[in-house]
# Entry
Amino acid sequence: MIPILPSSAHSADRPVRLPVPHALRKALPSSDRAEAALAKALDGVGIPTLNVSRLAEALAGSTGHAILAAPSCWTDAQLRWAYVVILHHLGDLNGRYGKLFDVADRGLDHTTSNAPVSKTKAATGMHTDSSDAGYNPDLVALLCLQPGASGGRSLLADAQALFDRLRQAHPELVSVARNAWPRDVVTPGLTSCSKAIEDNAIPVFSEDAHGLIFRYMRYWTERAMAKLDRDVPEELTRLFDFIDADMDEHAVRFQLRRGDMLVANNRTMVHGREAFENAAGFAPRCLVRAWVDGFLDSRSQALSLRA
Ligand SMILES: [Fe+2]
# Structure
């Protein structure tokens, strides 16, 4: 059985915060050596041994997320190095968009192009990461380098609790949630023809040997239907409306600060971001996203060895 944090560690109205491991502080490279140490860490070289068991337990258990707050006085390279080191202990960094992907406003508009919302300053809507039916990262992580001038609060919601409320309030929509619905194909390198969109079908709720899998991207699903020249079924709109209203009521909202590393279980937690603004006199907002694969498999192995 996966141990979980005591309930006192988790309040429904604020995120779980954990201290940065002491061994990480001790191993921090000096600012002039941090870039080189970061390059090595991205190749898995020079990674110090850390105890991340509290973080791993939070991610695998019912809390589904945690924030580690590194000192804001560390340089960007030191923060990136610390981030990579911590994530290395949780699994493998996915390189599909680069192992570290800077989420910043590039002046793009996702409503008129295939640009990801991560390259805009718009609200993202609540979602789980990856629009590709064939790929779902175990963990999604965000390191805050600069929060921007205003707005941009982060949001987190618990999909298991949402599913329980859906079953209670609208049992007739459970089968709709378990049906695979097409999602627009926006991953660079993948063909975005009608057949590819039709094939890129994903259920909102499903299960595998590790438990619940929640995959939600309302915007990309509705856009897929539009590209396929199909109406969005009325029951699917009802499901989406229920999910959005439930998350609006129950989501935790918080501001990330420089040095904060948010790590969330991408199968059981939904995340989002409110719209933000950059302004003269403030460093432009920049968060560094990473996707981690293999977290659940590593947990399974650790648990079976422990048993
Ligand atoms: Fe995201």
Q: What stands out?
A: Residues 1-307 form a domain with the Double-stranded beta-helix fold (CATH 3.60.130.10). The CA atoms of residues 12 and 252 lie 7 Å apart. The chain has a mean pLDDT of 91.
